[in-house]
Amino acid sequence: MFSAIANLKLSIFLSLLFILFCNVSETSSEVNTKPKCKKPFIDILISPVFANNETNILELIWSLEDFVPGTMLILMNSKTKKAEYEYKLTNPTGFVSTNISYKITNTTYGFKKQALDYYVELKASASGPVICSSNMETNPTWMQDNAAVLSKLSIREMFIPGTHDSGASTEEDDNGEQRVQKYVMTQDETILNQFIFGIRSVDLRIAYYSVKSNDSSKLWLNHGVQRICPFSTIVNQIKKFMENTKEIVTLDLHQFPVGFSLHSPGVHPHDILVEYLKAELGQFIAPASLTWNAKLEEFWKLNKTLIIAYNDEKTQQKYSDILWLPITQKWANAQDIQTMKKYMDHEFNQPPAGPWSTDVSV
């Protein structure tokens, strides 16, 4: 888990399946109950790891300032109110896999915080009173909800949760991941649902499939050379989220794998793409003159909350009023946690100039 208000001079976009922000709430039974947590942190995560024909395994994490061995974490089903997993803690911090697979449903969630299927409780014993609890829930407006804290922070002073190859999404099926899906599909949720769960930066790879005409309908969302869906599908989801919230969102247009370099004279794919974005999302686009040093309150004051970072120097300069400087992407290509940690330590100690992102998948 990570903090949305970490005081670091960078922007970091985490390459995760998706993240559920869960708020710890104290219950009335906590008063005069032992052990008492001064600052309890318990949460539910969904693991994107695919193993043994299972994915989306629920994991419980915890960090307790006042810790008594034998304290219990209990995963509860929100519908039945019954315990589905119990774990006796032996350390003040840690995580544990429940081996319970969360079933992703083809659902579009609302724009108000919504409780999901599980919550976790911290108890002194399995039958004891609840010390604190944490709901599994959506977070469509976490920036607005925390405006009193976040408004004076700049984008560069925040961790911004994001996803890698964000549009390459698919639903899990009964046969598990197929060969092509395993290497092409990186997300289980649509762009819209990712935003509703709390993601605020999306990494988009755009292709253009016409060498002889200027036609925005030929724009596609790709993962490498593999087509995923018409780009209009993605734009419509972005527009819907922007219309219903005041959240500050970053579009990282990072690669243009097909059709942007090989085309007939008179065909200008970058111009087609930018003009299409202006036509569809122009009312939300934040002026690049704000720069990455702008505080969140400045975006809200202008009522312009969409950042478009564009990784093509010539095009970015041509449309420098609305296209922000590109985001440097760092990729560890790590196969184990220790290699990832070593890579991350190096990058945090010697970060690139300007905004940057890093992939934390192994």
Give structural attributes.
alpha/beta; seven-stranded mixed sheet; five-stranded antiparallel sheet; 17 strands; about 20% helix; elongated; disordered N terminus; PLC-like_Pdiesterase_TIM-brl; phosphoric diester hydrolase activity; PI-PLC_domain
Verbal overview:
Residues 1-29 form the signal peptide. InterPro entries: PI-PLC_domain (IPR051057), PLC-like_Pdiesterase_TIM-brl (IPR017946). This is PI-PLC X domain-containing protein 1. This protein has nine helices and 17 strands. The chain has 362 residues and is of the alpha/beta class. The strands form four sheets. Strands 9, 10, 11, 12, 13, 14 and 15 form a seven-stranded mixed beta sheet that branches. The protein is elongated and about 75 Å long. Mean pLDDT is 82; it is low at 1-37 and 171-177.
Quick take:
Keywords: Signal. With 362 residues, this protein is of the alpha/beta class.
Characterize the main sheet.
7 strands, mixed
Q: Which oligomerization state do the chains in this entry correspond to?
A: single chain
Distance between the termini: 16 Å
Residue share in β-strands? 25-35%
Globally, the shape reads elongated
Structural class: alpha/beta
Percentage of residues assigned to helices: 10-25%
Helical segment count:
9
Rg from alpha-carbon coordinates: 22 Å
Note the run of SSEs as H and E. Answer: EEEEEEEEHHEHHEEEHEHHEHEEHE
Nearest-integer average pLDDT: 82
